[in-house]
Design goal:
The chain is of the alpha/beta class and 209 residues long. The protein is built from eight helices and five strands, in the order H-H-H-H-E-E-E-H-E-H-E-H-H. Strand 4, helix 6 and strand 5 form a beta-alpha-beta unit.
Length: 209
């Protein structure tokens, strides 16, 4: 709709609801789009949802411009420096649907969650591996875990007391190649999946002492 923005002689008036030279109402709508995008909705799904629920019509280009606003923050979070030592680091992957090469694929999201010296839990990173355009699915691989360990070292991690992971072949070698002094322990959840319980569980506080 056309707007007539009030102006004063000194040019100090700043509209709040619709800022100067803005093509849409900022604030709540942008936050809504980013929230829907973060929950995994595609651009087409977001457009359909906003039109169906709120009666708001947005183009795909507008939605893409809104979601691109958070890319710099995401890149800064992915490359942020980490603590030099973590008492425990949990390493695992979950399968998620990802749009890659214009195709929605099932891909592993590699996760690293660390516990620092104060007992606080931090998500150290989330990594996705690139796959060939003709590859429909991808599986978790120890080789990519090696690149994850290298990234942790490049961001400042120098030692991990206990690395908790599953029994993927080559996983322990990938961890120890980057952190030779780390104690690699299989997660008790994966022990339960095998129908057995570990005979020895390393206690993080004892190991740290």
């Amino acid at each position: 709709m056309p707007l007539r923005v009030p102006r004063d002689r000194a040019g100090t008036f700043e509209p709040v609801l619709v800022p100067k030279r803005s093509g849409r109402v900022a604030g709540g709508l942008d936050d809504m789009v980013i929230s829907l995008y973060a929950h995994g909705m595609s651009v087409r799904d977001i457009i359909h949802h906003l039109e169906q629920v709120y009666g708001t019509q947005l183009s795909a280009e507008t939605v893409s411009r809104i979601t691109d606003q958070v890319l710099e923050e995401v890149r800064a979070w992915q490359s942020r420096p980490l603590d030099p030592v973590y008492a425990v680091v949990f390493l695992d992957a979950i399968m998620v649907k990802v749009r890659d090469n214009q195709v929605v694929q099932n891909k592993p999201a590699y996760l690293a969650v660390g516990i620092d010296g104060d007992g606080e839990k931090h998500v150290l990173g989330i990594w996705l591996a690139k796959t060939a355009p003709d590859t429909a699915t991808a599986a978790e691989g120890a080789r990519f875990w090696g690149s994850v360990m290298a990234d942790l070292r490049n961001r400042g991690v120098r030692d991990i007391l206990i690395a908790c992971c599953d029994g993927l072949a080559g996983f322990e070698d990938a961890i120890c190649s980057a952190f030779p002094a780390a104690v690699v322990q299989r997660c008790v959840v994966h022990y339960a999946d095998l129908g057995i319980m570990p005979t020895r569980v390393v206690k993080p506080l004892v190991a740290a002492a």
